[in-house]
Write a structure and sequence with these properties.
Blueprint (H helix, E strand, L loop, with lengths): L1 H12 L1 H20 L9 H8 L7 H8 L15 H16 L1 H8 L2 H33 L10 H29 L4 H12 L1 H15 L2 H23 L1 E8 L2 E3 L6 E3 L3 E7 L6 H21 L7 H6 L5 H22 L2 H10 L2 E2 L7 H33 L5 H4 L4 H24 L25
Antiparallel strand pairs: 1-4, 1-5, 2-3
Length: 455
C-alpha cells in the first residue's frame, strides 16, 4: 500500500502527466454528460420503459453497452463512437484488398495516414447518417416514445443533425484525448461507456447473492473474476519471440579489418494478435439469423425452436456456434494482420535472418507455421472468454454483471487499461521514478491495433 501511495504522489509531481490526466478526465466527463441529454421531442421515461427489458443479447443491446446507456436514452451521443469504429474497420479491411489503401497505409508515411484519417472521417459521417435514420425509425416504433405534438418532419431533420453532430463531436473528443491527454481517446470513450454500467450491475449482484446464496458464494465469485482478469492480462501481453540475427559487419581497412558480431533482436508474435475483433464479427453473424427471422415472421417473432435458442445467448446451440465462429474469425483476422511475406522481405532488406532458417521463402513459411501454432491457444482462449458470461449466468450470476466475466467488455477493459498504464509508466520512468510494477515491464497493446483502427 505504501508503494502504491508513493507512486500516486510521483504521478502527481510530474506536471505534464498531471495535466494530461486531468484533461482526459475532463473530456470523459463531458462525454458522459452528453449521454444524458436527450434528442428534442423524445419522451425519455416512455422510451426507457419500452426498452427496460432489453439486454446485451442483440445488436441494439451491444450498441447500448458501448454507448454507456445513451442508446436506450435517445441521447445526443446515442450512436456514441460506433460509426467511427465501423468506418475504421472498413478502411482497415480495404487496406488488405485495395492497392490504393495499401499504399496509403504502408508507403506514404505521415501524409498517407492523414489522408486515411480524412477518408475515415467522411465515411464516419456517411455511416452516421444511415445509422441515425435507422435509429430514429426505431425510436418512432416505440409506443409513446415521441411526444404527439412534435411534427414528424421536424423530428427527423433535427434528429439526424443532432445525432451526426454528436458522433462527430465524440470523435473529436477522442482525438483530443489522444493528442493532449493520456491513452487512446477512442478506446477510452468506449471503456467509459462500458464502465458506466458496472456500478449498477455490481450493486444488483451484491444484493442478489447476499439474499439468495450468501457471502461465501459472493466472495468465491469475486475470486473467479479476479483470476479471469489475470488470465486475460497474460493472454493480451503474451508474445512468442522469434530470434533474429543480423549479419556481421567488418570494421577497419584492408588486412586490419575486424569482424563485429551482428546485433540480436526478435520478432514478437502476439498470442492474441486479433484483439476483440473476432468476437465482434462473431456477434454480428449470430445476430443475423434471429434478426432476419424476426423481420420475416412479424410481431410474433420466430417460431422455430432452433432459431429461438439461437437468439438466446445462454443456450447451448448459441454458445457452441459462437465459440467456433470466434476461433475461425481469430485465424482469419490474424492472417490479415500478420503477413509472413512482408516479414521475410523486410528481414532480407535489413540483412537479417532467423537462425537456422534460410532467407526468403523458407523464412516466410517458418513465420507462417509459427503464427498458425501461436494463434491456436489465442483463438481457444477468445472462444472460451466469449461464452464465459453465459456459463456464469447459468450458475446464478446477475445477467448485467455476467457480461464483465468475458466477451468484448472484459477484453476492452483489460486492453485499454494496460495501454493507459503503459503510457503513465513511461512518463514515470523518463523522470527516473519507479514504475507501476516492481519487476518486469508493463505492456499495453503494442503491436495490436487500437480500438478505432481495428480495435
Amino acid at each position: 500500500m505504501k508503494k502504491f501511495i508513493e507512486t500516486i504522489k510521483n504521478i502527481w509531481k510530474i506536471k505534464e502527466l498531471r495535466q494530461k490526466i486531468l484533461f482526459t478526465l475532463a473530456i470523459l466527463a463531458i462525454y458522459r454528460l452528453g449521454s444524458y441529454i436527450p434528442i428534442p421531442g423524445v419522451d425519455v421515461n416512455a422510451l426507457e420503459a419500452a426498452t427496460s427489458g432489453r439486454g446485451n443479447n442483440d445488436i441494439l443491446g451491444l450498441i447500448n453497452t458501448f454507448a454507456g446507456g445513451a442508446f436506450n436514452r435517445a441521447a445526443i451521443f446515442a450512436l456514441g463512437i460506433m460509426p467511427y469504429i465501423t468506418a475504421s474497420i472498413i478502411i482497415q479491411l480495404l487496406g488488405f484488398a485495395v492497392p490504393y489503401f495499401q499504399r496509403l497505409q504502408s508507403q506514404e508515411g505521415e501524409s498517407g495516414r492523414k489522408k486515411l484519417g480524412q477518408i475515415t472521417r467522411w465515411l464516419t459521417l456517411a455511416i452516421t447518417l444511415v445509422q441515425g435514420g435507422t435509429f430514429l425509425t426505431y425510436i418512432r416504433s416505440m409506443p409513446g416514445a415521441i411526444y404527439p405534438d412534435v411534427p414528424a418532419s421536424i423530428f427527423w431533420l433535427s434528429g439526424i443533425i443532432i445525432l451526426s453532430a454528436g458522433t462527430i463531436f465524440a470523435m473529436w473528443l477522442g482525438e483530443r484525448i489522444t493528442e493532449n491527454g493520456i491513452g487512446n481517446g477512442v478506446s477510452l470513450l468506449i471503456m467509459i461507456g462500458i464502465i458506466a454500467t458496472l456500478p449498477t450491475a455490481f450493486a444488483a449482484e451484491v444484493i442478489t447473492q447476499l439474499n439468495q446464496s450468501g457471502l461465501f458464494i459472493f466472495i468465491l465469485e469475486m475470486i473467479v473474476l479476479f483470476f479471469i482478469f489475470l488470465v486475460s492480462i497474460m493472454i493480451v501481453q503474451g508474445v512468442r519471440k522469434i530470434p533474429l540475427q543480423f549479419a556481421k559487419r567488418m570494421v577497419g581497412r584492408g588486412s586490419g579489418q575486424i569482424p563485429l558480431a551482428g546485433a540480436r533482436d526478435y520478432i514478437p508474435l502476439k498470442v492474441n494478435a486479433a484483439g476483440v475483433m473476432p468476437i465482434i464479427f462473431a456477434q454480428a453473424i449470430m445476430f443475423l439469423p434471429t434478426t432476419i427471422a424476426g423481420l420475416a415472421s412479424g410481431p410474433e417473432g420466430p417460431t422455430s425452436d432452433f432459431l429461438i435458442k439461437l437468439g438466446d445467448w445462454q443456450s447451448v446451440p448459441y454458445n457452441i456456434i459462437f465459440f467456433f465462429l470466434v476461433v475461425i474469425f481469430t485465424y482469419v483476422y490474424t492472417a490479415l494482420m500478420v503477413n509472413p511475406k512482408q516479414y521475410a522481405e523486410y528481414l532480407k532488406r535489413q540483412n537479417a535472418f532467423i537462425p537456422g532458417v534460410k532467407p526468403g521463402k523458407s523464412t516466410q513459411d517458418f513465420i507462417d507455421t509459427l503464427t498458425t501454432r501461436v494463434t491456436l491457444p489465442g483463438s481457444i482462449f477468445l472462444g472460451l472468454i466469449s461464452i464465459f458470461p453465459a456459463f456464469v449466468a447459468n450458475f446464478g450470476v446477475n445477467q448485467s454483471f455476467a457480461f464483465f466475466f468475458g466477451g468484448t467488455s472484459l477484453l476492452i477493459l483489460v486492453g485499454v487499461i494496460l495501454d493507459t498504464l503503459q503510457q503513465i509508466e513511461s512518463h514515470l520512468l523518463m523522470r527516473k521514478y519507479d514504475g507501476l510494477v516492481k519487476s518486469g515491464k508493463l505492456k499495453g497493446r503494442s503491436g495490436m491495433q487500437p480500438i478505432g483502427a481495428g480495435m
